[in-house]
Amino acid sequence: MKNICKIIKKTQLCKEVFDFEVEFSHRPLPGQFIHVLCGDGVFLRRPISICDYNEGILRFSFAVRGEGTKRLANHNEGDMLDILGPLGRGFDTGKSGEGTAVVVGGGIGIFPLYFLSKRIKTEAILGFRTKDAVIMEDDFKSVCSAVHIATDDGSYGFHGLVTDVLQGRLEKADVTSVYACGPMPMMKEIKRITEDMGIFCQLSLEQRMGCGIGACSVCVCKSKGEYKKVCQNGPVFNAREVDFDE
Ligand SMILES: Cc1cc2nc3c(=O)[nH]c(=O)nc-3n(C[C@H](O)[C@H](O)[C@H](O)COP(=O)(O)OP(=O)(O)OC[C@H]3O[C@@H](n4cnc5c(N)ncnc54)[C@H](O)[C@@H]3O)c2cc1C
Ligand code: FES
Question: Which among 16, 133, 156, 162 could bridge 127 via Cys, Cβ 3.0 to 4.6 Å?
C-alpha cells in the first residue's frame, strides 16, 4: 500500500537518530515495517521499523547511516513522505500470556520492540555503545515492568552486553518468551541461549532490501536450509528457523 504521508512531528533523539511522526491510515502490527522513499537521488526505498502507532499517527525512528537516511533526516514537519506499508510479518504474541516476555534490543534494533511492548507486558533489556547513545529509556519505562540498560563502555547502566543481562535474567525461571532485534552477533547469541534453555524466541532480522515486497530476492536469508525473503516471510522469524552460519 502506497501512502503519501504528512510529517507532523520531527524530534532528534541523539546525535544521529531522528524520530518522525506521520499521518498514516493503515493500522500496523508490532514487528511490521515501512519502506520509505528518502528523497532526490536515492532511487531505492529504505526499510524502517514501525516504532509506534496510535489513532492514525505512525512513529518511526532511524539512525543516519548513509545517503538514504541522510536525505530522510533533511525532511521537516509539514513535508510529505512516500511510504509503502505496513509490510512484512510481525511478532507472534501468542506465547506472551503464559509468563514473562522479555524484549532485547541492540542500538537501532530497539524501535520495533517499543511497539511490541505497548501491546504485551514485557521487561526490556536495551543495549547501546555509550551513555550518549542511550535513547527511549523513558518510553520503555512507561510501558515495561522493568528496563535494564547496558552500555559497551560501562558509561551508563550495566557494563557489558545485553546477552549477559539476558542470561542472568533467564536464570530466574519465569521467562517464557524472548523477542529480539539488533546486530547479527547479538541475535546469534540470543538464538543460542534461548535454544539451550528451551525458551520461545523470535528475532526481527535487518537485511539490505530492494523492493520490500517479495519481488527481487535481495533480502534472502537461510532458514532451515531454504532461502526465505526477509521482507515477505519476515522480518520476524522464530529463532529456531534462522541459520546464522550459512
Ligand atoms: C526490516 C528492517 C527494519 C529496519 N528498521 C530500522 C529502524 O527502525 N531504524 C533504523 O535506523 N534502521 C532500520 N533499519 C536499517 C535501515 O534500513 C538502514 O540503516 C538503511 O537502509 C540504510 O540506508 P542508507 O541509505 O542511509 O545507508 P546505505 O548507504 O545504504 O548504507 C550505510 C551503511 O548501513 C548498512 N546497511 C544498509 N542497510 C542495512 C540494513 N538493512 N541492515 C543493516 N545494515 C544496513 C550498510 O552496509 C552500510 O554500512 C531496518 C532495516 C530492515 C531490513
Ligand atoms: S527486498 Fe525484494 S524480495 Fe525482499
Answer: 162
